[in-house]
Amino acid sequence: DAMVIQNPRYQVTQFGKPVTLSCSQTLNHNVMYWYQQKSSQAPKLLFHYYDKDFNNEADTPDNFQSRRPNTSFCFLDIRSPGLGDAAMYLCATSRGLTSGRSDTQYFGPGTRLTVL
Amino acid sequence: AQSVTQLGSHVSVSEGALVLLRCNYSSSVPPYLFWYVQYPNQGLQLLLKYTSAATLVKGINGFEAEFKKSETSFHLTKPSAHMSDAAEYFCAVSSNFGNEKLTFGTGTRLTIIP
Q1: How many CB pairs under 8 A join A and B?
Q2: Which of A19, A35, A79, B2 could form a disulfide with A13 if both were Cys (CB 3.0 to 4.6 A apart)?
Q3: Where residue A98 falls among pLDDT bands split at 50, 70, 90?
């Protein structure tokens, strides 16, 4: 089945130690998104890629970076994790449809990040 | 700017009872509306979406939602709750201008009472 895969599902890191989260997709979608979801809150968009074009949300901290080496893979790098970065990180994809057509986002299972 | 408001952060219903989760939206352009469900430690799964075709939208797991423009609402219903429906439900809105961001509501946690 076509799907969005996130690895690892659970990640533990130490305060200040860089960490990379991985997302891959077999849907061949143009757009890939990274969301941060803290406990009992709605997902918050960090950034997204439309093909190779990177789009950062204005309030995304500089501590968060992303790479998309090819259509299938996208990475979230947290350069110096703080305690406040502990959260569920969700990857999503969409086809990237043009005006007048609905563009549905499909989510992966998420990676829960713990910062010690 | 677009926004959604989900009334009731927690809703409890008895097994077999009607489920009603409320969502009101604000949008200056015709909206696309979505309901997602999230089980513990899982990602979001699309339940259903409204894209300006039929106003009554049927989704997975017996859920449906009705788009009411006059009330700016898109409430989610299910006639008979099942224990497996216990989860967090998010309403979201985007525009029909294509490739637009999803704006999520704050979520409603649904508890099913045996």
Answers
A1: 64
A2: A19
A3: low
**pLDDT at residue B108 is higher than 80:** yes
Cross-chain Cβ contact A99/B97 below 8 Å: yes
- In total, chain A counts a number of residues equal to 116
- By the 10 Å C-beta count (0-12 exposed, 13-18 middle, 19+ buried), A8 is classed as exposed
Cβ contact A103–B94 (<8 Å): yes
**Mean pLDDT: which of A38-47, A76-85, B20-29, B88-97 is highest?**
A76-85
Q: Which residues of A touch B100 (CB under 8 A)?
A: 103
Rounded to the nearest angstrom, the minimum Cα separation between B107 and chain A is 6
Contact between chains at B44 and A107 (C-beta distance less than 8 A): yes
Q: Token pair of A6, please?
A: 């996130």
B90 touches chain A (CB under 8 A): yes
Q: Cβ of B98 and A40 within 8 Å? A: no
CB-side neighbour CA atoms (13 Å) of B28: 2
A chain contacts of residue B54, beta-carbon cutoff 8 Å:
none
Residue in chain A lying closest to B101 (CA): A45
Please write the tens of the pLDDT for every residue from A3-26.
999 999 999 999 999 999 999 999
- What is the distance, to the nearest Å, from the Cα of residue B30 to the centroid of all Cα atoms in its chain? 17
